[in-house]
What we know:
By secondary structure, this protein is of the alpha+beta class. It has helices at residues 78-137, 144-171, 178-194, 215-236, 276-290; strands at 15-21, 44-53, 64-70, 199-203, 211-212, 240-248, 251-258, 294-300, 303-311, 313-314. The protein contains five helices and ten strands; from the N terminus they run E-E-E-H-H-H-E-E-H-E-E-H-E-E-E. The strands form three sheets. It has a five-stranded mixed β-sheet with strand order 4-6-7-9-8. A three-stranded antiparallel β-sheet has the order 1-2-3, with no helix packed on it. Helix 1 (78-137) runs antiparallel to helix 2, helix 3 runs parallel beside helix 4 (215-236) and helix 4 (215-236) packs antiparallel against helix 5. The longest helix is centred in the middle third of the chain and has 60 residues, at 78-137. The chain is elongated.
Amino acid sequence: MDFTSPEGLAGQALLYQYRLEGVSDDWTPPSSPRHVDLANLAPGRYHFQVRAVGAEGKTSDLPAELRFVILPPVWMRGWFVLLVTGGLGALAWLGYRARLRQLLEVERIRTRIAADLHDDIGASLSRIAILSEVVKRSTPEDQPETTRFLTEIAESSRELVDSMAEIVWSIDPRRDDLKHLLARVGQFASGALEAKGIRWTMSLPPDPARIKLTPEQRRGTFLILKEAINNALKHSSCSTLHLQVEVNRGAVIAQIRDDGRGLPPDLPERDSTSSHRGRGLISMHIRARDMGGRLEITSDATGTGIRLELPHRLLGGA
Length: 318
């Protein structure tokens, strides 16, 4: 910006002062240049004033002034910000709707698979087991080999029915919460432990139906607790067992403690060359890791403890 004073045309040497309200309210020191660079000003309203200063320090009666406005760039204007915000919100909403449709479709597929497995394959396996028993009863006693084969067919069919029931339970989306998991664990523990005369107790957290688990977490947790109960049942010679489940700081914590003789000190927990029991412990650690959880096993002469910790989310919030 350039400026001058009419008095300067008569040959009188003049100096100039200026100030820019909005940046500084103080006058600059008198100087001879008759221009000022106002580049790089932020968007806003400004009031520029300049006055001449004579040789004796006398200033102009009235300063020359200029008022101007610097508009913000397009990307800083309100309408543009609102437009971008609205666009991002619309994209987020569309993404949420697409994700919701995907989840609903996955749940429909899981429900259909669970129903098909239960109604078709499960029913067929049960029919095979029943027919095998019928044929075995009508087989002459002088054909023991045939009877043995029919017995194996019936037993294999019943085992497959049980396995199929676990698979159906694990993929059914209506069971994706802690309540159904604990009901399944309690049902297994009741049948397995009470048949051997082992006293057992189970402590539950309040409102377990609100705790949402993924299908992998639900199935993996059930298999870990099932393996722990089976180990106590087969190897610990315990008389009591306690299962405690609690929810604390964003995690589900399941603990099983028995009063048995504990694990042998020379049994490696992670050695793939160890016995079947050792492989069972390795499998428990792998399942916990794959679920994003953590498994701890402690054992001494007073018994064995299993502690499983895994993350969860609430049905009503994070």
